[in-house]
Structures are given as structure tokens and as C-alpha cells.
Amino acid sequence: MTDRDPLTEPEPSLPTPAEGDDPVEARIADRVALRGTARSDAAERILREASEIDRAVYRAIASTPSPSLDAPMRRLSNAANRSAIWLAIAGGLAVAGGRAGRRAALAGVVSIGAASASVNLGIKSLYPRERPDRSGAGVTEDRHVRMPSSSSFPSGHSASGFAFATAVGREIPALALPLRLLAGAVAYSRVHTGVHYPGDTVAGSLVGGATGLVVGDILARTRKGDA
Questions:
Q1: What number of H helices and E strands is found in the chain?
Q2: How far apart are CA 143 and CA 137, in angstroms?
Q3: Checking CA distances to 120, which of 62, 81, 110, 211 falls within 20 to 30 Å?
Q4: pTM of structure
Q5: pLDDT of residue 47
Q6: In the predicted model, is pLDDT for residue 141 greater than 60?
Q7: What does residue 171 show for φ and ψ, rounded to 5 degrees?
Q8: Alpha carbon 100 to chain centroid distance?
Q9: Per the omega criterion (within 30 degrees of 0), is the bond before 154 cis?
Q10: CA 185 to CA 180: how far, in whole Å?
Q11: pLDDT value, residue 53
């Protein structure tokens, strides 16, 4: 087999565009498709690496002995089941906080409902994620709380906590920091007890915070409209 002589043999012909196709447009479309594929691959790599970091942090927390924290974190996590801790605070504000307390309690409870619906009826079904294998990761039984059967992503406890803290803090700024710290502790307790990855709680916290802001704005506009 001999090499092709570039001086005597014609160049191989390129595929002929279909009738009616614009060759320039076809090339542009191919380049756009290639760039889209490259971006998709890059996004997939980033998500995979982020997931590995997420799991590594979870394993590090699970394997770190913390006997003085285990019982308090377990109790705090359980206290936030069905938003009980937030509803109790709302009740106290409604009873003892005067008009501002009642407004704050209403905003907080409505925000909890909106955040819970967004997470449990929406996001969890769209982005299912298996719960962590806490036994395999070494989470001691002293930390264990009931393992939910729902998707791990995002954390509903975190969403409810930050929704409540954000909405109430908007009405009563003096409570903003203490409630956010409490919401952060609840979010961490879900990782400490082994039922969520850290990324689940971060996502839940962001969803909750955004929900609290939206609900607070809507209620404020409603009050202005009624005035």
C-alpha cells in the first residue's frame, strides 16, 4: 500500500451538506453542541467531586468520638421532629410577644409550611438520594435517631429551621441571630446523628432561608395593602 501523493491525487471530499442546509450554520451548530457537551461533562465532574467531599466530611464526623455531644445532638434532633421546637417558640411569641410577637409567630409558621411543602412534595421527589449508611460509616448507637425513609436530599429539618428563623428574625431582628444559631445546631444534629450528609443540610438551609424571606415579604406587603 502506497501513500497518497498530494500533488497528483485530489483531496478527500468532505461530506456534502444536505440540500437546503447552510454549511456555516451547520458548523456553528456542531461547535455549540460540542461546547454544550464539554460543559455538561465539566458539570458532571464537579458534582461527582462535590459528592465525594460531602461523603468524606460525613465519614469524618461519624468516625470522630464525641461522647459529650452525642446525647445533646440526639435530643435536639428529636426536638425538631415535625417542627415541634419551632412551633413551641412560635406559641411563646404569640402569647407573650405582643403584636410583634404574633406577627412573627404567624410568619414563622407559614414559612415552615411553605418550606416543608417545597422540600417534601417537590425537591425530594425530583432529586432522590439514598440515606447515608451510618452503620458502615461508624456512627455509634449513642447518636442514633430514627432513620427517615424519604430522600436524603435536602434536609427538611434544616429547611424548616432556617425558614422559621429567617421569617421571625425579619419581624423581630433581636431574635435573628439566636434563632439562626439554633437552626444551624439542628441542621448539624442531623449530620451528627447520621441521617443526613452535610450537603443535604446546606441545601435545606438555603431553601429554608429563601422561603422565609419570600414569605416575610408577602406578609409585609399584605399588611401594607390592608392598612
A1: 9, 0
A2: 13
A3: 62
A4: 0.82
A5: 87
A6: yes
A7: -80, -35
A8: 30
A9: yes
A10: 9
A11: 97
> Predicted confidence band at 7 (pLDDT cuts at 50, 70, 90)?
very low
Domain assignments of the chain as residue spans, ordered by start = 29-226
Query: Directed axis angle between helix 98-117 and helix 84-96, to 10°?
Result: 160
Give the helix, strand, coil percentages of the chain, each rounded to 5: 75, 0, 25
Output the CATH code of domain 29-226: 1.20.144
Report how far residue 154's alpha carbon sits from residue 181's, in angstroms, rounded to the nearest whole number.
19
Between the alpha carbon of residue 170 and those of residues 100, 112, 113, 161, 210, the distances in Å are 11, 14, 17, 14, 12
Q: What is the pLDDT averaged over residues 23-48?
A: 75
How distant, in Å, are the alpha carbons of 41, 55, 185, 202 from that of 133?
A: 28, 10, 22, 19
CA dihedral (79, 84, 86, 90) in degrees, to 10, reads -140
Distances in Å between the Cα of 98 and the Cα atoms of 72, 144, 160 are: 32, 39, 24
What are the Cα distances from residue 191, in Å, to 6, 53, 65, 106, 111? Answer: 67, 14, 14, 29, 23
User: Which grid cell is 118?
Assistant: 417545597
Confidence at 20, pLDDT banded by 50, 70, 90: low
Sign of CA pseudo-dihedral 178, 179, 183, 184: negative
**Strand positions, DSSP E, the chain:** none
Q: Is 204 exposed, middle or buried (0-12, 13-18, 19+ CB in 10 A)?
A: buried
